[in-house]
């Protein structure tokens, strides 16, 4: 158990200004050493890429407004990038991390120092690799405490613990995705899920190492839950204990007491749990939410909520009652409870007068293969995915560097469609609609400080499902969502403009829509994508470029003196 610290020992307090602006708080330094490490799970041992020999990786602890410098030493076998998920990085896309979007991979045998600038975030975020599927084993928590002189907007917990949900593959995860992209088929599903690196009692060779959370009767604990799973959303709960949601994606929410949460890959949730049951053992469990015909890992990871004291352990440990894997109504029941705190100390600022509206279909598709040689379907096509029927084609040069140095014509185009190229009954019968999509490296250009609304529209093409959509560089307000096709005349009348949650990742309902709003007040190049890794690998991505404002303070910072080299220049 980790008590909530008053300060972080690894930090170096700095009262001087940063090179590009005044530091509001402390400056912290971390070294991340990426290298292959042997781990044994599920009766077998494998070598896998980790940071500092740990799975999950090391935690970063800061206070609101701090700055962190992380020197990433790549001692692995291939190039890697690191992303600081949910950190807005004001004016500093250079350290955001998505491969060939804001930087090229850090080559093996080299290092790269990234600067992480915290601003309004407070709560729990996380970091992870952002190149191929290496984030399966390269990830960790970011804990952002309130500034000195302020506190949590709820009763301070007795202790806190981080809960990281992750995928476990017996195979080399990089070989899994490489094989899938080569054949055009669906990648193999994971062999297990883990809680803090351990699969739990329901898997072979695992019950001796099941993660245990030791608690004292009558005390309240803060659990910082992170979904680092590659391709499955998760129902999560603790047997016979209620959870009170108090934060998500680095922002506070109105407390909501629930039996379970549903958390998508990329999301973080802060929940309070009080140890108020008879002292015993109780299972903590995470099971998949997968409302699709696509293959998924239908297994359950467990940990043990273990009371301290003298008592006879139960012969049968109580198990939480979680919804069935395809219960989309249960998922919606939970997400509909999430509201921003909207207090004087933590107000919302929802854009009201929209100057830019984008309507974006989110689909799984196919692409043709030469001589029908792929294994994605019976026609010999490869599996693909798209936004507005454009399947993102990752360039070999960083888009940020191309934009900054005016090399755009050779790297990307600015004609991403802001509405679907073809309108049809998106969520209905699509038998007569082609599954083929169009590859391209197309971006959306936004003027500085535009007020933006994006309506994501799910479609019934191929294998429809819930999509966790994530935007780098911003938090945004989820102002509305529902099943079916979006109606621009009636649905905005039902938007929540009073206390919508401020998040960085949202679950787009299967065959439904979700509307988000934000101010384009962060100049830079920002990736937007589905956080299901197979969909991101297939092209369910695009890039938003926010132009500079009229001053130095509203413009992208100059690049650092060193950036990892690209394959072209």
From TrEMBL:
Keyword Signal among record annotations: yes
Enzyme Commission number(s) of this protein: 1.10.3.2
Keyword Signal: yes
Pfam family, one: Cu-oxidase_2
Main location: secreted
PROSITE patterns, sorted: MULTICOPPER_OXIDASE1, MULTICOPPER_OXIDASE2
UniProt name for this protein: Laccase
